[in-house]
Amino acid sequence: MTDMTDLDMEELLQIDIVSDVVCPWCIVGFKQLEQAIEKTGVSVAIKWHPFELNPDMAGEGENLREHIMRKYGSTAEQSRAARDRLTELGKELGFEFQFSDESRMVNTFKAHQLIHWAGPQGQEHPLKMALFEAYFRDGKDLNDNAVLVKIAGSVGLDETEAQKVLEDGRYAGPVKQEEKFWIQNGIQGVPAVVFDRRHLITGAQGVDNYAAILKQLVEGEAA
Length: 223
What we know:
Elements: E1 13-19, H1 24-40, E2 44-50, E3 62-63, H2 64-72, H3 76-93, E4 104-105, H4 109-118, H5 124-136, H6 145-154, H7 159-168, H8 172-184, E5 192-195, E6 199-202, H9 207-222
Parallel strand pairs: 1-2
Antiparallel strand pairs: 1-5, 3-4, 5-6
Helix pairs in contact: 1-3, 1-9, 4-5, 5-6, 6-7
């Protein structure tokens, strides 16, 4: 991933990604985009933005399989097939999904507040990746303060301050406002990727498609 400190910001292609850390297609889409960036050599600046798949999810969460079946009307077989497909896609992209019958869907509002806090410290991206891994690989509860604090510490953030951020909710308002902004601008599902602040692409598009988009944008700017 491009280090923004090493390049003039004007030389970077801005990529805004609206996503949730419990959205499997969000990490699949990002990993595809990441490979496309490496493939094309385009210099980019990634900015993550919050979206909650289940803003009304109870604190204790819900069994993932039951949640998917209830929300989308899928059968147990369809749910299992979808998880198997994601697991295979993850392997191809270097990301590990570890689904089980005990996997749970959880509320992610606290996680988004931590990501917001981490931004000015230059740790937004590492924290986002660590949260994806903690949830999908390790089965961690991203609504648990102790879990979130430990994840923050794992990427070099101050754990004491992370605990305070979660306890006092200082970033709850800003996160809600940003979520509202994206919804009001037509984002109803994620991942939603905005290239160069102008071009919206939704869903995981695949490495080749992302590469083609990047090339087209760079060539267009050059022209």
